[in-house]
Amino acid sequence: MKRQLLLGVDLGTTATKAALYTLEGAVVAEARTEIPLSTPAIGVVEQRLEDIYESAAAAVKACLAGANADPSPIAAMAFDSQMAGVGAVDEDFRPVAHFDSWLDMRCQPYIEFMDRKCGDRITALTGCPPTCDHGPKILWWMNDRPADYARIAKFLMPSAYVAGRCVGLRAEQAYMDYTFLHFTGLSDALAGGWSSELCSTFGVDMSRLPRIVAPWEVVGELREEAAREFGLCAGIPVAAGCGDTAAGMLGAGVVRPGMLLDTAGTASVLACSTDRFVADTANRTLITMRSVIAGLWHPLAYVAGGGLVLRWLCDHFLDGDKSYEALFAAVAAAPPGCDGLTFSPHLGGRICPAAAGMRGAWVGFSWSHTKAHFLRSAVESIAYEYAYYLEILRQLIPGLGLVEGRVIGGGSQLRAWNQMKADVMGVPLRRVMRQESATWGAAMIAGKAAGLIGDLAAHAEACAAVEQECAAPHERLRELYRQGYLRYRHWQDTLNEGFHFDD
Fold first, then answer.
1. pTM score > 0.70 for this model?
2. DSSP class of residue 369?
3. Which residue, 155, 156, 163, is CA-closest to 241?
4. How far is Cα 143 from Cα 202, in angstroms, rounded to an integer?
5. How far is the C-alpha of 215 from the C-alpha of 343, rounded, in Å?
6. Which residue, 168, 219, 445, 500, has fewest beta-carbon neighbours within 10 Å?
7. What number of other Cβ atoms are within 10 A of residue 272's Cβ?
8. Residue 310: exposure state from Cβ atoms within 10 A (0-12, 13-18, ≥19)
9. 404, 427 contact by CB (below 8 A)
C-alpha cells in the first residue's frame, strides 16, 4: 500500500496530543496524554525531557490503538512544541538537566539585564523584546549553574529533542527550526540565523547553539527502538517540525497576508500574517514570529488570562447556571459599549507591553449600571485589547489590508463573542471546525517532508475546514465601539501608571 497517512504530534506544556490524518486532513485517529510538570519552589517550573519523549510515545500508541489504525501507511511524522522554554543535551544527546519551562521565572534578573544592555537592539533583530525565553535562560545556566552549563553540548527545543531521539541524532546534529528564532533573544530573525553581535554582547558560546533548519527538513528516519516505543514502523521519515503557535497558524489555514488568527483559549492570542518582518521597538507589544511559510511573518500579542476572565465571571458573578452560554445570555441585556463602563482584563499582570504590576479594574460606573453592564464590559475588554494590537500593526505596516480572521480554541464556540470581536476590530471572523489545528499543522509539515505536499500554503488553505457562516462586522456599531476603544486605551494608560505608584 502506498503510504498516504500523516502523523502530527503536539508537545504542549501539560499534555501531548497525537493525531493521524489523511492527506486531505480527515482525522483517522487521535489521542492525548499528560506531561508531568514540577514546581519544587516558587518561580521554579521544570519538566524532564524524558517525560516529554515518553508522553509522545504513549500518545502515538494510544492514537493508533484507539482506532485500530494500521501504522504501515504513515508516510512521515513531525512534532511541534511549546516555544519559550529551553532544554539542553550533552555530547551523547542525553539531557543535562530538567527542561527549563517558559513558566520558570528564575531568569528574571537576566531578562532585566538584557533589556538594560540592548533591549531595543534585541527587539529589532529578533522581533521580540526581552522576555522569559531562551536568551535569559541560557545566561541563567551560564552564571547560576556553571557546572551544568559546562556539560551542555547543545541547547534545543522539546520538538527537536523528541525527534532527535527518535532518529538517533548526535549532539552536533541538534537543530532548531526557524519558527523559534524570535524567542531566542540571540538571533537575527530576518537573516534566519544566529546573531554573532548579540551572542558576543552576552558572551554566549555559539557552538552550544543548534543549527537552524526549515520545518520540513527530514532529520532522519525512525529507528527500530523508537518504532517499538511509539508502536510505529521503523524507517518513517521524521521532519524537523516547528513551534506550536506556528503549527496552529498553519493548521488554521492562516497563510496569506492580511489574515488573522484569534486563539480563544486560556490565553487570548491575536496573530496576523504579513509579507514583511516588523519589529515593534516603540511599543514593545507585538512579537513577530517567522511563519512556517517562507516569506510570511506573524506579528502577535496576547492577554495571558483572556479566557480565564470569562471563567472567573461565570464562577463568581452568575447564580445557578454558570455556563458560558448563561454568561452571554446575561451579557445580551446590556448595550454595546456598556454606557461608558470599562474593564481592564489584566488580572495577573499585562504581558504585551510588559507591566507585571497591572491588575483588573472596572471604571466609569454609575447608579444606572447593572450586573449585565459589568459582565459585558469585561467580555468587550478582550476585543478592545485586540483592537489595540491592530492599531500598532497598522502603524508598523501602513496600508495593511485585513481580509479575514479565523478563530480556534474553546472560546471559538461562543458565537456572540466572535461577533463582538468582529464588530470591535472591523474584521470578519470565521470559526475553524477542526479541533486540533497544531497537530494538523505538524502533519502537513510531515507531508511536505515526504514529498506528498508541494505548495504548503495552498494545501493548508484548501484543507482549513473553516465554517461557512461568518461573523461580519456591523457597520452601525463602528462609531460606538470606536469611542469605547478610545476610552479603553485611555484607562489602560491611566491604570498602568496607577498600579506602578509604589514602584
1. yes
2. -
3. 163
4. 11
5. 41
6. 500
7. 27
8. buried
9. yes
Q: Where do the domains of the chain lie, and which CATH numbers do they carry?
A: 5-246 (3.30.420.40), 250-305+390-472 (3.30.420.40), 308-382+476-499 (3.30.420.40)
Q: How many CB atoms lie within 10 A of CB 295?
A: 11
Q: CA torsion angle for 250, 252, 256, 262 (degrees, to 10)?
A: -110
Cα gap 151→479, rounded to integer Å: 60
Helix locations, 359-499, DSSP H: 371-396, 415-425, 437-449, 456-462, 478-499
Nearest to 267 by CA among 245, 297, 289: 245
**Residue tagged 496573530 (cell numbers):** 271
Tell me the C-alpha distance between 372 and 402, whole Å: 32
Cis bond upstream, residue 345 (ω within 30): no
CA angle 306, 309, 311 (to 5 degrees): 120
Could you give the angle at the alpha carbon of 158 between the alpha carbons of 164 and 53, nearest 5°? 70
Residue 269: HSE in the Cβ half-sphere, 13 Å Cα cutoff: 20
Mean pLDDT by 10 residues, the chain (503 residues): 85 92 94 89 88 97 86 94 93 94 86 94 95 93 95 97 98 97 96 97 97 98 97 96 94 95 89 95 94 96 88 95 95 96 92 82 96 97 96 93 91 94 96 90 98 96 90 94 97 89 53
133 is written with which cell numbers?
525565553
Q: What is the pLDDT of residue 502?
A: 53
- Report the distance separating Cα 10 and Cα 33, nearest Å: 11
Identify the bridge partners of residue 237 per DSSP, sorted by sequence position: 221
Distance CA 75, CA 346 (A): 45
